[in-house]
Amino acid sequence: MSCSLLYYVVSAPGAIYIVSVVMGSCYGAHWAIVPSAVSELFGLKSFGALYNFLTLATPAGSLIFSGVIASGIYDYETKIQSATNLNTLTDGEALTCYGTICYSITCGIFSLLCLMAFVLSMIVLYRTKRVYAKLYRSS
């Protein structure tokens, strides 16, 4: 996900199509892997509560990332563009942001957040590696 968002940041022509396919595949893989990872790491006793927490994390993340971060940056870029094109704006016309700058900063921030999530996942992998090696060696 991080690489696809960085690809969008560099503003390659047609990048949105490639980014959409990669991001959709990553989200699909996430929802296929997470239930088994949660049950494996935390057990089946509290699986229902943890899975509900993970299910609620998606709309909460959407609210924070889309509703606060992405919209704030988009509005900021729109104000910058409208200040330079003040003479061409007519009454009642909505402010619109043009170009890749509208979302490239947002995608850069999200790319860094995805990279941080990847690093945290690798830490969990490293910490549980010995446990699983002992578990599967004895069986």
UniProtKB/TrEMBL annotation:
Record-linked InterPro entries: MFS_trans_sf, NFD4_C
Keywords: Membrane, Transmembrane, Transmembrane helix
Natural source organism: Helianthus annuus
Membrane topology: Multi-pass membrane protein
Assigned GO CC terms: membrane
Entry superkingdom: Eukaryota
Descriptive protein name: MFS transporter superfamily
Pfam families to which the protein is assigned, alphabetical: NFD4_C (PF23262)
Compartment list: Membrane
Domain NFD4 C-terminal: 11-132
